[in-house]
Design goal:
The protein is 51% helix and 16% strand. By secondary structure, the chain is of the alpha+beta class. It folds into two domains: 1-59; 65-182, no CATH class. Strand 2 (95-99) and strand 3 (103-108) form a beta hairpin. The longest helix has 57 residues, at 3-59. The termini are far apart. 18% of the residues are buried.
Length: 183
């Protein structure tokens, strides 16, 4: 190997290194540009959703919260007849117990623990039958799990039931059949 061959090999290695550096810089610029486009699209989607929800909020009118609840429950995968003929049985701070034609439903704020409703306290008798929470099917209802305007509708219905409380943006629904509440 001569000095010219060595110089040519070094020049070739330096050329490949320079080419690799240029490709890396180009990829970094391209990745940054793609990220910027993604951020712009994300911001546009957020604004579009906000505008759509603002328009929907103006159109939502919940006059009868019981009718709204029955209509809302009809959209959910509940046992047949569970949402029919709902009657508010008892209510407390942040919860309402309904009796339906096929069982009971407890609508409760997500931050509340329903266990005291089953066991009672020294000041209050139990609201739920013993073992009901173990047998209950629990659904979290929010704009993510129900439908996009659920929280906007819930605010209006909640204010009718609890005018003095701040409405939640989501609720838990505990459902159990009449057989489970006796068994």
């Amino acid at each position: 190997m001569t000095e010219a061959d060595l110089a040519l090999a070094l020049l070739l290695v330096a050329g490949f290194a320079l080419l690799g550096a240029l490709i890396t810089l180009g990829n970094a610029r391209q990745a940054r540009a793609i990220r910027e486009v993604g951020e712009v699209l994300h911001e546009w989607a957020i604004r579009h959703i906000q505008l759509s929800r603002a328009t929907a909020a103006q159109a939502i009118r919940i006059e009868d919260p019981m009718a709204w609840l029955q209509e809302a429950l009809a959209r959910l995968p509940l046992p047949d007849g569970m949402a029919q003929l709902l009657i508010p049985e008892r209510q407390g701070r942040g919860w309402i117990l309904f009796r339906g034609s096929a069982g009971r439903l407890l609508l409760i704020r997500p931050e509340l623990d329903p266990a005291p409703l089953e066991r009672g306290s020294r000041f209050a008798a139990p609201v739920l039958p013993r073992g009901a929470l173990r047998k209950a099917r629990v659904l979290e209802l929010s704009p993510v799990t129900a439908w996009p305007t659920f929280d906007l509708e819930l605010v209006q219905a909640w204010r009718k039931w609890f005018p003095e409380e701040r409405p939640p943006d989501r609720v838990r629904l505990l459902v159990w059949s009449e057989e489970a509440s006796h068994g």
